[in-house]
């Protein structure tokens, strides 16, 4: 079982080398504005929910990019546009050199199998009336794929790969626990041998003790099969395990992106600092009393704050922040590839914030194994 899988060292593309490689996925100024209609008797468009408001990022072959931020920041919407479950309002999505931003169903067909999604809720994402075998097999049937040895053989191999008993082929989803169902979701996503998996909060519906096992499984899959991941989570502790690079999203924008090491040890954006300081369950000792607490909720994406969107919750905000939107750039002191959108960034301190990343005990144990192994 995946319990025994040790965490491999992430060998992903470094920021420097990444620039010289062709990205598998490139997103430029991508936006999703959901229209709001009102008025009587004739309904008119009266506004828009600016769920995603101009994001740029790239994912390289075999790379795992973590996308983090509080609830409502637009992470899921971003993931759904990348998989083209949603069509962007503006911007451009390029996959393997092809512009798929507005590609129609038929045009998307050849790449549908290459981009797969793993959903948050392993309970609602599996059809309760279908056996596990049918669930995992159906993407192959839909796409007319006949693997050597047949589809059933392939399904049994996939079950084994994700740590389930191949003999459970004829069982139904309700016979499995949450963690096992998420493994079924992973097997289904792998059935078409994808090149990119968008995993939208794949472990947040699971019990904390199970989360580590599923993260571990995804990491094994990524490492052994070389699949690129866009790993969406609200928790920096989970993404840390898994990502070569991490992008931090706030109210429809990416505010900071960096390789894993830079982001966790030298975060520059106050919001990243705040996320790293989020400590729900740990007793506050003197050292930790100064942890940053984010006040209030994320403002409404219908009318986001002017200038820097984080300014209404930021302890460093000044007048300039209300008038000038900070660009996402490599500010002074940042390593190559580390971009920050802030007028008054935190110092590039190597004062590790690592101790601020609070992990549940199971994840912490994995991390320990990883470093010791
Ligand atoms: N179909 C829709 N119509 C209108 N607004 C939407 C729609 N889908 C999402 N939104 C809004 O867009 C914003 C971003 O939502 P999204 O689900 O992408 O955020 P998120 O960061 O993934 O949050 P969560 O972790 O809660 O899913 C939210 O304010 C949400 O209410």
UniProtKB/TrEMBL annotation:
Keyword Cell division assigned to the entry: answer is no
- One Gene Ontology MF term: ATP binding
Source taxon at top rank: Bacteria
Keywords for this entry? ATP-binding, Nucleotide-binding, Transport
Q: What CDD domains does the record point to?
A: ABC_NikE_OppD_transporters
Domain ABC transporter, by residue range, is 25-276
Q: Can you tell me which family this protein belongs to? A: Belongs to the ABC transporter superfamily.
Q: What is this protein called?
A: Dipeptide ABC transporter ATP-binding protein
- Gene source species: Streptomyces lichenis
């Amino acid at each position: 079982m995946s319990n025994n899988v040790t965490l491999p060292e992430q060998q992903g593309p470094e920021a420097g080398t990444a620039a010289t490689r062709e990205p598998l996925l490139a997103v430029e100024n991508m936006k999703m504005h959901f229209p709001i209609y009102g008025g009587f008797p004739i309904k008119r468009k009266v506004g828009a929910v600016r769920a995603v408001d101009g994001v740029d990022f790239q994912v390289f072959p075999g790379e795992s990019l973590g996308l983090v931020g509080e609830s409502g920041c637009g992470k899921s919407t971003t993931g759904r546009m990348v998989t083209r479950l949603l069509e962007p309002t503006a911007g451009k999505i390029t996959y393997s050199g092809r512009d798929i931003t507005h590609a129609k169903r038929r045009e998307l067909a050849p790449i549908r199998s290459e981009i797969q999604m793993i959903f948050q809720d392993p309970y609602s994402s599996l059809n309760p009336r279908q056996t596990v075998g049918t669930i995992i097999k159906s993407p192959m049937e839909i796409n007319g794929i006949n693997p050597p040895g047949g589809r059933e053989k392939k399904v049994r191999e996939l079950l084994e790969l994700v740590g389930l008993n191949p003999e459970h082929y004829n069982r139904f989803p309700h016979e499995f626990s949450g963690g096992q169902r998420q493994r079924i979701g992973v097997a289904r996503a792998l059935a078409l041998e994808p090149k990119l998996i968008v995993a939208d909060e794949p472990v947040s519906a699971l019990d904390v003790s199970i989360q580590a096992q599923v993260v571990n499984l995804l990491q094994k899959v990524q490492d052994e099969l070389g699949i690129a991941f866009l790993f969406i989570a609200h928790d920096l502790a989970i993404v840390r395990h898994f990502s070569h690079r991490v992008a931090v999203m706030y109210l429809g924008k990416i505010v900071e992106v960096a390789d894993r090491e830079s982001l966790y040890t030298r975060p520059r954006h106050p919001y990243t600092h705040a996320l790293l300081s989020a400590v729900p369950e740990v007793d506050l000792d003197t050292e930790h009393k100064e942890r940053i607490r984010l006040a209030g909720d994320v403002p409404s994406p219908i009318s986001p704050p002017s200038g820097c969107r984080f300014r209404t919750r930021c302890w460093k905000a000044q007048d300039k922040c209300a008038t000038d939107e900070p660009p996402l750039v490599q500010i002074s002191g940042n390593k190559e590839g580390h971009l920050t959108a802030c007028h008054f960034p935190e110092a590039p301190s190597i004062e590790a914030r690592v101790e601020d990343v609070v992990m549940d005990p199971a994840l912490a144990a994995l991390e320990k194994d990883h470093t010791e192994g």
